[in-house]
């Protein structure tokens, strides 16, 4: 999908529940959300409705309840949100985005080594020298 999927924190948390369960009612999503930041059942229902309008979830009726399911994958959302972030904050410059993450996120030597391996693997796959 080439659509943009910019989700707020609560919307992303709701999507995580749906990705994990594949489908869920409003009450099931509500029960599965982080209890450190409790949300009203009506708030969860409103967010699911907004997600449906964005085209990222759909519902079916099961008796009197709506059962929601994701229409996009977690990778679709990650790709879209990271791409939007890179465009918005770094004028689309991926090198600047990665540099910022390395400098500002306290990456340890093990994570840095893993990044080096990923870069080397990508370069080899693409036929480039690192």
Automatic annotation (TrEMBL):
Coiled coil: none annotated. GO terms for molecular function: DNA binding. It comes from the Bacteria. Keywords: DNA-binding, Transcription, Transcription regulation. Pfam families: Penicillinase_R. GO terms for biological process: negative regulation of DNA-templated transcription. SUPFAM superfamilies: Winged helix' DNA-binding domain (SSF46785). Belongs to the BlaI transcriptional regulatory family. This is Methicillin resistance regulatory protein MecI. The gene is mecI.
